[in-house]
Structure formats: structure tokens, C-alpha cells
């Protein structure tokens, strides 16, 4: 990782294109901080700190609102957290979220959100409660909209899905489920959908879900389609997700 990303930074520097260099530095900072934490490697943490500082300086001079400043701040949050400086980590976490907010990015930017969430949780920051709710809604949207079972299961059982699930905690989604007209679904559908959603986020296959709730696998697939139909862009769930985004970012 280090060899390839440092080479990317070198090539970007030689090209004389500051935006390309900023992007490469921000990615190097993020990956070095993640692996530095995972491996307990202080050399990687120092590399992340240097790269993030340089990326942040370049980003401040660039036009537009690319996510590289947010990535640099997220990397610094991970470095400070690894060194036990939770308050400093929270400062960088807030800066990362403020950068995303100013850019009004539509992407979820999970590479920024996850380290920021870790820093806010560890520091006990007042923003943590809203961040956790945002994580829960983000996981809900991912689970509901990934109709390919294999892709969904691999993602939730993968490192990023597991980390987000750990940070989000138990998901209570019943209050956000609405019918196609934006009204509460009623007749116990909320509880059934919430149960289905929790199983999805746990990385279970359709077959495992079917066995768990006592219906056949085709019925699970059908219910997933019905659930997706109820949470379209005009539904209350999407509106709630947007509200949380405005509140958290």
C-alpha cells in the first residue's frame, strides 16, 4: 500500500497538478492511518500525519469542494485516537464533517464517516448520538437497496460493514417505515420490516432469514422488494435520512 500510494504522490508531484497530488496524499493519509491503527505501527501513523497535513494545506488552495480535506481530517482523527488523545481526535472529526457539509456531497463518504464516528464515540462528544442515528439510517438504506443477495451479504460480512454495524448498534427502524404514499404501514408491517432489516444488517442470507422467521426463501425475497418499494425517494425514511444528514454534517 505504502509503496504504491507514495509512488502515486510522486507522479502527481512531477505532473505539477496540485489537485491530483492532494487526492493521492489524502488517500495515502487515510490508508496509512487505518493500517497504522490496525498494526500498531507508529511509522505508518507518522506517515499519515505528514500526508494529511500536506493534503489539508493543498485542499485549502483548491477551488470547489472535493472530499480530500475531509479525508485528511478523518486520517488525523484516527492518528490522534490511536495516541489516546480523544479530545484532539474529536476536533479533527468535527472538522471532517464540517468539510463534507460545506461541499454538500451526495456520496455517503464512508471512508470519512467511520473514523469520524470512532473519534466521536471514544471522546463522548455530544454529536455522537446524532452520528449513531445517521449510521443506523445509512445501514438501513444500504440493506434495503442492495437487492443482490450475494453482494449484500459479502458487504455486511466484510470489514467495513462489520465496523459500521458495531458503531451503529441495535437498529430500530420501525418508526421510519412508510407505505408508498408516505403513511405509516400499520397492521404489524412495521415490526416485520424492522425484524427483516435487523437480519439484513447482520449479514444474513435470504435462506438464513427465512429459517429464522419461519417463512420460505421466496417470501423473504418478495418482502425485500415490498420493503424497497415503500422507502422510495419520496418516503418518510429518505426524508428522515436527509434530516439526520443535515443535523450531523
List keywords for this structure.
mainly alpha, single chain, 75% helix, 2 domains, 249 residues, elongated, 0% strand, 13 helices, Serine Threonine Protein Phosphatase 5, Tetratricopeptide repeat
Topology:
Layout: H1 2-15, H2 18-39, H3 42-59, H4 68-82, H5 86-103, H6 110-123, H7 128-145, H8 149-157, H9 159-168, H10 189-201, H11 206-213, H12 217-230, H13 236-248
Helix pairs in contact: 1-2, 2-3, 2-4, 3-4, 4-5, 4-6, 5-6, 6-7, 6-9, 7-9, 7-13, 11-12
Account of the 3D structure:
This protein has helices at 2-15, 18-39, 42-59, 68-82, 86-103, 110-123, 128-145, 149-157, 159-168, 189-201, 206-213, 217-230, 236-248. The protein is an all-alpha fold. It folds into two domains: 2-125, Serine Threonine Protein Phosphatase 5, Tetratricopeptide repeat (Alpha Horseshoe), CATH 1.25.40; 137-248, no CATH class. α1 runs antiparallel to α2 (18-39), α2 (18-39) packs parallel to α4 and α4 packs parallel to α6. The two termini are 30 Å apart. The model is unreliable at 173-187 and 233-237 (pLDDT under 50).
Amino acid at each position: 500500500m505504502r509503496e504504491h500510494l507514495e509512488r502515486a504522490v510522486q507522479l502527481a508531484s512531477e505532473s505539477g497538478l496540485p489537485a491530483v497530488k492532494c487526492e493521492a496524499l489524502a488517500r495515502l493519509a487515510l490508508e496509512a492511518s487505518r493500517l497504522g491503527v490496525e498494526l500498531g505501527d507508529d511509522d505508518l501513523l507518522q506517515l499519515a500525519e505528514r500526508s494529511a497535513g500536506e493534503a489539508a494545506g493543498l485542499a485549502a488552495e483548491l477551488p470547489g469542494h472535493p472530499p480530500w480535506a475531509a479525508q485528511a481530517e478523518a486520517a488525523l482523527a484516527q492518528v490522534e485516537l490511536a495516541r489516546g488523545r480523544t479530545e484532539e481526535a474529536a476536533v479533527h472529526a468535527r472538522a471532517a464533517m464540517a468539510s463534507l457539509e460545506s461541499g454538500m456531497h451526495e456520496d455517503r463518504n464512508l471512508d470519512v464517516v467511520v473514523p469520524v464516528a470512532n473519534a466521536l464515540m471514544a471522546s463522548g462528544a455530544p454529536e455522537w448520538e446524532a452520528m449513531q442515528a445517521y449510521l443506523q439510517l445509512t445501514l438501513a438504506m444500504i440493506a434495503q437497496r442492495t437487492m443482490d443477495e450475494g453482494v449484500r451479504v459479502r458487504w455486511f460480512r466484510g470489514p467495513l460493514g462489520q465496523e459500521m454495524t458495531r458503531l451503529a448498534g441495535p437498529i430500530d427502524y420501525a418508526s421510519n417505515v412508510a407505505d408508498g404514499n408516505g403513511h405509516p404501514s400499520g397492521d404489524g408491517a412495521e415490526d416485520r420490516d424492522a425484524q427483516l432489516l435487523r437480519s439484513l444488517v447482520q449479514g444474513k442470507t435470504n435462506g438464513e432469514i427465512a429459517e429464522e422467521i419461519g417463512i420460505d426463501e421466496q417470501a423473504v425475497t418478495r418482502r425485500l422488494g415490498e420493503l424497497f418499494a415503500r422507502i422510495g425517494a419520496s418516503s418518510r425514511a429518505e426524508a428522515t435520512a436527509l434530516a439526520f444528514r443535515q443535523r450531523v454534517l
